[in-house]
Design a protein that fits this description.
- The chain folds into two domains: 8-123, NAD(P)-binding Rossmann-like Domain (Rossmann fold), CATH 3.40.50.720; 132-267, Rossmann fold.
- It is built from eleven helices and 14 strands.
- The protein has helices at residues 16-27, 51-56, 87-93, 103-109, 125-146, 163-174, 186-194, 225-231, 249-255, 265-269, 271-288, and strands spanning 8-12, 31-35, 47-49, 60-62, 68-69, 73-74, 97-100, 118-120, 155-159, 178-183, 198-201, 213-216, 236-239, 258-261.
- The strands form three sheets. Strands 3-2-1-4-7-8 form a six-stranded parallel β-sheet, sandwiched between helices. Strands 11-10-9-12-13-14 form a six-stranded parallel β-sheet, with helices on both faces. It has a two-stranded antiparallel ribbon with strand order 5-6.
- The longest helix has 22 residues, at 125-146.
- It is elongated.
- The protein binds NADP nicotinamide-adenine-dinucleotide phosphate.
- NADP nicotinamide-adenine-dinucleotide phosphate (NAP) binds next to α5, α6 and α10.
Length: 291
Amino acid sequence: MSISKYSTFAVIGGDKRQLYTAKSIADDGYCVTIGGFDSVSLNNSLKNEDAATAALNSSIIILPLPAVKNGNILNAPFSDEFIYFDDRLINAVAGKKIFCGMKNKLLSAVPALDKDLVYDYLEREELAVQNAVATAEGALEIAMRQYDGTVNHSRCLVCGYGRIGKVLSQMLKGLGADVTVSARKKSDLAWISLSGYRAIHTDDLKEYSGFDLIFNTIPSMIFDSVVLAHTAVDAIVIDLASLPGGVDFAAARRLGITAFQALSLPGKAAPKTAGEIIKNTIYNMLEEDNR
Ligand code: NAP
């Protein structure tokens, strides 16, 4: 089933990414109203209203990731004032499909919402895979800014060979880096070797050293003080794993190792692409759902 041409969208709250989602939907010919963006200058094709009016005007509601912060306050960094998910907003979205990131957080903050009508685009594999590209580019941007040498010919370690690890290793190789990748599955180690990288088991990290740049994608405490002291001396460490992350930053400070926690990179490094990825994912979900 395709999306009805009569669908109307409210994009409420969020950062630049969400603005690009709104713009991209409007460019497809749909009527889009945004809410919670009073402090940005806007493209004229977007109607700008308060959050509840935007929701009332629309049949489909798009919220950011996360949708709420600090209880039932909408995550709306471009709003001049706090937007509470109060009864007026709850009534305005009632009976409508709501797309957001981290839906469980939204549902526990606003239990009055109909959980069957709340959809989580952050749980979608196609979004995670495409976001890996923006994340890897963001990581490279940090590496290029922070490292005094070129990435070309640098000795790079990528920990984890999931979505981000795969994309980042490929980009580093494309730039001419000497790439080592760690994984724990035998099949991943085989693919790593086959792809032309040096493969090492994640459990053996502390047996290796001499890296200029280390990128961690593993969402577990991998770079504790022991591994940092053996593997990361003289390296710049960039932790990409979601909180709580995979690097002991206090230990890194003690050891004099430069380490960065690099979070939410798609929205920072490539808000336009990140917004379009959200739009395409929501379109996929609407097409699959024929309620
Ligand atoms: P992924 O595809 O699930 O890959 C994770 C990798 O870590 C896999 O190789 C996995 O190995 C490995 N791993 C997980 N737990 C491990 C453990 N305890 N010991 C050893 N290896 C372990 O995830 P992803 O999409 O690449 O994302 C990686 C992290 O980045 C996540 O925390 C994600 O939320 C975060 N992220 C960050 C940003 C940002 O802007 N910084 C953006 C998007 C996502 P197995 O396959 O063997 O389990």
